[in-house]
Amino acid sequence: MAFSFVLFKYVCFLFARANFCFTSIEHFSDNPNNTETSIRSRKHPPIIVEIVFNLILPHILPLHSFLHIPMFVSRHIFKANFRQVARSAAYATAASPSPNHVNIVEVGPRDGLQNEKSVIPPHLKVELINRLGKAGMTIIESGSFVSPKWVPQMAGTAEVISKMKRLHGRHYPVLVPNMKGLDSLLDLLSQYPQLSTEPPPTDEIAIFTAATDAFNKANTNCTVAESLERLEPVTRRALEAGLRVRGYVSVVIACPYSGKVDASKVKEVSRALLDMGCYEVSLGDTVGMGNPSSVRAMLETVMSGNGGLPADKLAGHFHDTYGTAVANVMTALDMGIRTIDSAVGGLGGCPYSPGVTGNVATEDVMYALKDSKYKVDGDLEAMVDIGEWMSQTLGRTNASRTGKAILARRERERKTAGAKL
Ligand SMILES: CC(C)(COP(=O)([O-])OP(=O)([O-])OC[C@H]1O[C@@H](n2cnc3c(N)ncnc32)[C@H](O)[C@@H]1OP(=O)([O-])[O-])[C@@H](O)C(=O)NCCC(=O)NCCSC(=O)C[C@@](C)(O)CC(=O)[O-]
Predict the structure, then answer these.
(1) Which residues line ligand 1 (CB under 6 A)?
(2) Residues 45-56 pLDDT 10s
(3) Which domain holds residue 66?
(4) Could you tell me the distance, in angstroms and rounded to a whole number, from the CA of residue 141 to the centre of ligand 1?
(5) Are residues 63 and 137 located together in one domain of the fold?
(6) ipTM value
(7) Which atom of ligand 1 has the smallest separation from the CA of 208?
(8) For the chain, how many structural domains are there in total?
(9) Is 381 exposed, middle or buried (0-12, 13-18, 19+ CB in 10 A)?
(10) Angle (nearest 5°) at CA 188 between 108 and 240
């Protein structure tokens, strides 16, 4: 009997300690500069469980009880404060090991596939994401919680992100256009046990708007101002749920409906997204008409003058319609930007920009930065294999110049080796 009593006391104590550790993780993860722990700490036990285990039981069975009251109080005070901080301060896309480390946001599974003619089965998307993770991609945009009536290719995202292999320390953002999309995502996340050692399906959403009303109406059926109004509560709720929020501004150079874009509008919309709580804004040359000179001019306007945005809050997102995407990436890097969106095999297009070709190929970016002062994560040879596999599977031409060159080199080497035998 006495033994059982002591055992019970220790179980209570251990539970309280575990709860305290868990609380500490949550405080830490709410620190916006920490990107690693947030995935394990979206929720905490119901308050009644805490009261029983942290306050009542330790007093009935007084063991380290002096610790529990301050723990309980601090937990509930700090929780609110850290959330405030999270909203206004900044995450980094990833903790960059050096000032010349370039973060690649691999957008192939989302931006790359959303414009395919046929609907791609979830298992194929899962396979693509798994291969990209294995090849060392650290941020993989994995799908969209948008209306399947608008973008049928993104249907099944919940299944994809539930089934893909989630690697620790990686991020798998998904696009969310409105509260309905966020509701669906949060519903899914609520099914994952809070103390699981498995990362949840995602810890990040991306919201999107544009620099022109015409494009935004075609893309999301509302003006830019209306979209910002719609996205503010979505962002707030996502941050409260412990998710990272990234923003996109489309058509930063040219709009397929209204022509040349005023860069000061790009600056204004980007600022609005950062003020809302986005940790970073990706500037999309959606139609791929930019060249180094227009990209530089746009970035100069966005980054300088009154309310200029810092380079570490911006990312470059270039489509390759005119073959200038790699040059535009180099221009953005030269201007201090260190996050680039790209898609394996140069997959992509945009459903609301007819004629637009894919994103800059990840392989081409990796090759362009090889032996330079810039460093990127990932295995180029493995990415070439993935780009070729995906292109063949989709029955499309591999759009990566580097991919094709490396495949040709391998073929030559294979023939030379065969001839020697
Ligand atoms: C924003 C809406 C929904 C407005 O579309 P809407 O028609 O105005 O919305 P609604 O609220 O009237 O709803 C219409 C129907 O959609 C449903 N619905 C509504 N929301 C959702 C949702 N989240 N998930 C699932 N279903 C949804 C809703 O329930 C309803 O269903 P019904 O009653 O008719 O059966 C729509 O315009 C939309 O989904 N647009 C998404 C477009 C898109 O995904 N574009 C591509 C991504 S952006 C991009 O590629 C650019 C980027 C980021 O890569 C950067 C660059 O290159 O520039």
Answers:
(1) 111, 114, 144-147, 149-151, 175, 177-178, 180-181, 208, 219-221, 248, 250, 284, 286, 317, 350-351
(2) 455 554 555 555
(3) 2-88
(4) 17
(5) no
(6) 0.98
(7) 53
(8) 2
(9) exposed
(10) 90
